[in-house]
Design brief:
heterotrimer; A mainly alpha; B alpha/beta; C mainly alpha; A: mainly alpha; MetI-like fold; 2 domains; globular; B: alpha/beta; Rossmann fold; 6-stranded mixed sheet
Chain lengths: ~290, ~250, ~300
Amino acid sequence: MESRKKRKLIEGMAFGVIRLSTVIICLALAIMLGFILVNGYKAINWTFLTEPPMDAMTKGGIFPAIVGTFYLTLGAITIAFPLGVASAIYLSEYAREGKMVRLIRIGINNLAGVPSVVFGLFGLGLFVVFLGFGSSILSGSLTLGFLILPVIIGASEEALKAVPQTYREASLALGGTRWQTIYRVVLPAALPGILTGSILGIGRAAGETAPIMFTAAAFYTTKLPSSVFDEVMALPYHIYVLATAGTHIDETRHLQYGTALVLIAFVLGINLVAIIIRTRIRRKQTY
Amino acid sequence: MSNKIKMATRNMSFYYGDFKAIEGITLEFSENQVTALIGPSGCGKSTFLRSLNRMNDIIPGTRVEGDVFLDGENIYASGMDMVEIRKRVGMVFQKPNPFPKTIFNDVAYGLRVNGVKNKSELQDRVEASLKAAAIWDEVKDRLNESALSLSGGQQQRLCIARALAIGPEVLLLDEPCSALDPIATQKIEELIRELKKNYTIIIVTHNMQQAARVSDVTAFFYMGRLIEVNKTEIMFTKPSIKQTEDYITGRFG
Amino acid sequence: MEKAKKRHIREYLIEKWFLFLATISIIILGLIVVFLFKEGLPIFKTVSVGEFLFGQLWYPTDEPADFGILSIIVGSLVVTGISSMIAVPLGVLSAIYISEIAGPGVKEILKPVVELLAALPSVVIGFFGMVVMAPFFQKVFNIPTGLNIVNASLMLAMMAVPTISSLTEDAIHAVRRELREASLALGATQWETISRVIVPASLSGICTAIILGMSRAIGETMVVLMVAGGAATIPESIFDSVRPMPASIAAEMAETPFRSDHYHALFAIGIVLFITTFLFNLIADYISQKYKQVGTATL
């Protein structure tokens, strides 16, 4: 009886520690979001969202940065989506386990692990310098696109694998070719999952700073981009710049919080949408 | 009963990797007859069935030895077109597996992938197939609803209609009633008896009463081998091999 | 038959086309290597590899310049090490809570919490460390600057926790239910089942999760750039400032003349960083392949 009591006690203590860890994580998220929300919402008004920065970035808004982030993100997903879905189709529908597939998977895993600042160096070396695109939307989009490629591949492959094998069998048994089966049956069934993954990729691309520092981001410009070869401001870089490089760091604190809040609202909003869609799909999936 | 031989296997074996799932099976299937394949779970009857339209080709690491003939032509010969074979040898699966499309598009799928584009032809053939599968009256007013809205039994008849739409000569049924209730099962069985006027039918079942009710010939599989094959009424009354008798009378399996 | 042949050729070409597209990840990885080395190797005409890696002085703009990155490497190791000490228990334990203890309702809240934490842009976490945590540390510990190792490690841990937590959860999830039930049926408490059956059974997955979490921490840029303080010296206390590898690259690249020695040296730091995370990933990959469970459950 004694030993049973002791065992229960140990369990209680262990669970206490485990619960505490989880609480700490939740608190950390809540505190971070709370601080930025409380300090940031005051800065946000119509002018802030629609006007360019003024007076050496101590006043005014962040409109060029919003536009820049929008273009960079759009460019990144335009590059990553087709490549990512195609890779996933190969891995899920065509590939048979072997050396080639193993190599591709190692490639994807390692690409996912490349530090974002190294992506920045790569983008600088290849797109900005070697291909001569300069610091531009194009260079930044390509860099970000390759950065989120593994995210898109992973999500798409998972979505394709969740399509029941019976659909493929049914199509093949009706005289469908492999490609007809993929195109007409598997892809439509996997599409919601693929889109969810792509939304997550967009969120990731929007929040990254280091990859665009040397490839796309401008310190300050009021001019909106007119071509893909233009430099742009971007929300994450703008936060960094205001918080570290300005001459009036303390006076612009509210602008920093405001920009951070806009960025967070965008990124977390995107993620929430993805999470909700995914939960819906999982509930609806009867197969 | 001296019908023409539609399909036949000769000394056919099947491997999953190193594991020999089926060993040297020689069997003939006559036109306009129903042949039932029976045997305990894991005896290889489904694997055998799936070899008849090369559905096993999609499973990595599998291999077929021996010959399978369709109208005297070896379907495993090099240069044979898998797509063409599967068009001629249709298949219905254990669990109803309609696509998440409308009823009409589900049945039209096979026609479309085979290049039928003409709208009125599509409509005619979808209707004819649904009628042949005895489900037309139940769905004619809801062709644009999702196929998944149908009941299990209706879904399975839809899958049969879908298979019939592309005009197969042979119909493979892989335990088509195992997921259905008795009333739906009865409907499918009636349908099978009706369909054999036009098709060669091979059905895998572990329900012996079903085999007795619908088939003309029954083949008993055990541990990857063909133990006995005979006319159904003889199999179920005077099996010549003890194992068959034991299985049929429920002593094992 | 002519039609069938055409179809075969078409299907064959489609498959090969997808194979080609699937190799894009390898191609990009290859290009990353090529351009890092192309821009980074020239520095070794000026300094030797040994001097570069083990030199203690980093004065890239002096005349003559010093390109020793030992203090930068140490900076990276220290913040990664300390952040792992924080992130590993938090990540693993929260995963255990989510997958083994929490009820379905709590789970539905906690999983998104972890995902949202993962989704927080690093610049925002860095910003928080800078404007909230740094003054806090400065006041509480009465130190000259709050931008230091402790602060950076704490913020880095926040970036590594979601990685560790979600991968650990996947690993635990893959443990077969029968094992769990068998242990409980033998009279073990839930904690005994977790500590003696479930954790050992998913250990390789947990190791992979930890390695990938650390890899994330070592490569993370914005947090260390904004919060670590930026001193390129070997630290003596956890309240000292450091300048980890990603921070050096990000901070200095903008100000360095194109293709100067300094520029090449920054790319060379990129090589060191890339090789480090590459090795981490290979080890993680190796572990998860080697101990891949055979049978129904996979990692």
